[in-house]
């Protein structure tokens, strides 16, 4: 798993993922991924993220990008796709996250 080339939307390039800031005090999520027609959306809730460490903010962003890459939730705190809260341990894909990615994308 190497780097992911993220290009901005332009006249000749259609965005696959749109990332938006949010400030939702009543929400129960720090990051939210949704698949919409034509593209995916990642919402980052600064109400929670403003108090997170850089390490944990990176973990939230990478978790949501994992969804955009078709990774599902895992019941393992030692994976990036752990879902029950933001106490996941890694802030980069664990071996099992990479295996899940490769099972879909090759
Ligand atoms: Zn998730």
From TrEMBL:
Report what the protein is called. Answer: Matrixin
| GO MF assignments | metallopeptidase activity
Q: Which organism is it from?
A: Actinopolyspora xinjiangensis
Entry-linked InterPro entries: MetalloPept_cat_dom_sf
**SUPFAM superfamilies the record matches:** Metalloproteases ('zincins'), catalytic domain
């Amino acid at each position: 798993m190497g780097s992911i080339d993220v290009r901005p939307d332009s006249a000749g390039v259609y965005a696959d993922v749109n990332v938006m800031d949010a400030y939702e005090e009543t929400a129960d999520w720090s990051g939210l991924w949704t698949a919409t027609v034509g593209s995916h959306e990642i919402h980052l809730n600064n109400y929670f993220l403003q108090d997170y460490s850089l390490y944990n903010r990176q973990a939230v962003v990478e978790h949501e990008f994992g969804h955009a890459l078709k990774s599902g939730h895992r019941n393992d705190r030692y994976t990036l796709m752990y879902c029950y809260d933001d106490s996941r341990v890694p802030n980069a894909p664990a071996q099992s996250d990479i295996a899940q990615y490769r099972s879909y994308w090759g």
